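Duplicate of #3305? Posting structure anyway:
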């Protein structure tokens, strides 16, 4: 089954188009990398997949359904760049951050239940974060923050995981550990994973990439690595 399908997608914030007839099909369970220079349209492409913006021309489908008709995106996990989450304005522990991604299930009083905390702890253990469960999120290193954000995304058991520059600003050892976790998630849990990155050499060395695409002048090109 096609998890994501874009057909002749065009988009521009002004008269100049950022995306110029983009076609992309990602079957279930694939691990796909998208590379490209800053300003090439990668972030815009992600926003279309997440339903944050609407294509001006063409079709965007998520799990067989037109994205504009999809009411919930809980089946899609999104992990932003670590720089985007460097500091949270209020004090929060790693466990609290992860649990909050199930906010819609908290009930009328909006208080997490035991099952939510239990699930969060299980995921944090899988991510190797058991010793940081009660640590303040803002005090973690960049690599640990990325792992915590992955754990947060996994609370809804997503079928698709989208990662925006997941290794940027992270030390080498943490990058390797992080990518090994991504590999396991893809191979073991069969999650469809899309990684936007500049570090294609490192990504290809560690991950079992199915396809690599390059954003260039508003177009998406399949490349061989």
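Output from current build:
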């Amino acid at each position: 089954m096609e998890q994501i399908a874009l057909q002749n997608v065009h988009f521009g914030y002004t008269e100049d188009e950022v995306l110029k007839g983009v076609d992309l099909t990602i079957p279930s369970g694939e691990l796909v990398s998208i590379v490209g220079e800053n300003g090439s349209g990668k972030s815009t492409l992600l926003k279309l997949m997440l339903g944050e913006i609407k294509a001006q021309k063409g079709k965007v489908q998520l799990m067989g359904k037109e994205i504009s008709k999809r009411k919930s995106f809980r089946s899609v996990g999104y992990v932003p760049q670590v720089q985007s989450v460097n500091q949270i304005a209020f004090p929060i522990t790693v466990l609290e951050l992860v649990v909050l991604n199930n906010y819609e299930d908290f009930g009328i009083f909006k208080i997490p239940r035991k099952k939510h905390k239990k699930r969060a702890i299980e995921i944090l253990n899988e991510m190797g974060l058991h010793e940081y469960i009660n640590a303040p999120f803002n005090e973690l290193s960049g690599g640990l923050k990325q792992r915590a954000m992955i754990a947060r995304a996994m609370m809804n058991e997503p079928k698709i995981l989208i990662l925006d520059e997941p290794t940027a600003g992270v030390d080498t050892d943490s990058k390797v550990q992080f990518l090994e976790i991504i590999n396991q998630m893809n191979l073991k849990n069969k999650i469809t994973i899309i990684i936007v990155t500049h570090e294609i050499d490192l990504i290809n060395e560690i991950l079992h990439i199915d396809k690599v695409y390059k954003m260039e002048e508003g177009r998406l090109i399949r490349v061989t690595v």
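Confirmed duplicate; merging threads. Helices lie at 42-49, 94-99, 114-126, 142-154, 172-189, 200-206. The radius of gyration is 18 Å.
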